[in-house]
Amino acid sequence: MSVNQATMNDDVQPDPAALAEEPDGGKKVGPKKAADRTDMVGKALGLLVLLGEEPRGASAADISRRAELPFSTTYRLLGSLARDGFVDYEPDGRRYHLGLRIFQLGQRVSNHHGFAGTAMPVLRRVTAETGEATILSVRDGLHHLTVSKVDGPQIFRVTSDPGHLGSLSTTAVGKALVAFAEDGEREKLLAELPLEPLTGKSITDREAFRAEIAQVRRQGYAVMDEENEAGMRAVAVPLLNSQGHAFASLATAVPVFRLDLEDLIAHVPLLQEAAAELAARLPQR
Questions:
Q1: DSSP code of 58?
Q2: 3-state secondary structure of 251
Q3: Rounded Cα gap, residues 127 and 122, in angstroms
Q4: What is the reported pTM?
Q5: Neighbour tally for 220: CB within 10 Å
Q6: 3-state secondary structure of 257
Q7: Do residues 63 and 51 touch, judged by C-beta distance below 8 A?
Q8: E strands along 28-142, which residues?
Q9: Is 244 left (phi over 0), alpha (psi -120 to 50) or beta?
Q10: Do 71 and 12 meet the contact criterion of CB atoms below 8 Å apart?
């Protein structure tokens, strides 16, 4: 999508001088200027990450504040990203969203890791047996990232779509990823992971969370009972590499009115069978 920067007004006007191109004049770029440009690439990528956390989009001023960058710099970077399709601009609401180029690149990454071609048939098979949504996630820093999902035939739909970044501490997929992480990484997460209270049932006490993760390791699966979203529960199992560490997790998610916790946990053997198949076929990160 090509966007005319003259239409990208926000609640703060950019400094025209800051929007001008660098006066290189075709001269050889020195080490300092090359480093500055590399830094600008990093800043642009940082803006994309911030936009990825804003499903409804954000204004240039909001992004500037969150990125702790001058407004003029943010405005210019967003204009460049919009010109190349990485960002879309919504004139009516003066908000920016991730563009289709990001979706295209994400699809290529998904295909490279086998999530589309290899994982989807397995997820569909699990959903056909459970009648509920099946979700495959990987860890992305302090979050879990949904990489594949198959919805069940029911009208009520799980909202964790591919590309969604979610909490590690309040979700079944997240707990499974933490519980079966490499030992040193697990200890670091147990000590430093933010324990955000997303609902009244979220675990916010550090020792209680540590006990929860120990239980997940003992039983081989994790549950979420309205800790991440009121009215929803889920059960998840890890996908283990040859060292016994999780590189992904697989979950069945349901609304609470359709399955109680005991009936949901009854799906664990099916999930474990599917996880073992996926672990043998997917590239292990």
A1: B
A2: strand
A3: 9
A4: 0.67
A5: 14
A6: coil
A7: yes
A8: 87-90, 95-98, 133-140
A9: left
A10: yes
Burial of 68 (0-12, 13-18, 19+ CB in 10 A): exposed
| Integer Cα distance of 129 and 241 in angstroms | 26
> How does DSSP classify residue 6?
G
Task: List the one residue out of 199, 105, 14 whose CA is nearest residue 5.
Answer: 14
Model confidence pLDDT, tens digit, residues 97-145: 887 677 656 655 655 555 656 789 999 999 999 999 999 999 988 999 8
Partnered with residue 98 across adjacent β-strands are 87
Q: Which of 135, 103, 104, 137 is nearest to 246 (CA)?
A: 137
Report which secondary-structure segment, H or E, holds 50. Answer: helix 31-52
What is d(CA 50, CA 105) in angstroms, rounded to the nearest whole number?
17
Cα–Cα distance between 241 and 247 in angstroms, integer? 7
Structure token pair of residue 66: 């969150």
pLDDT digits (tens, 9 = 90+) for 5-23: 333 444 444 433 333 333 3
Cβ contact 78:87 at 8 Å:
yes
Structure tokens at 174: 């997240």
Name the token pair of 220: 């081989």
Whole-angstrom CA distances from 44 to 37, 50, 68, 220 are: 10, 10, 13, 41
141: left (phi over 0), alpha (psi -120 to 50) or beta: left
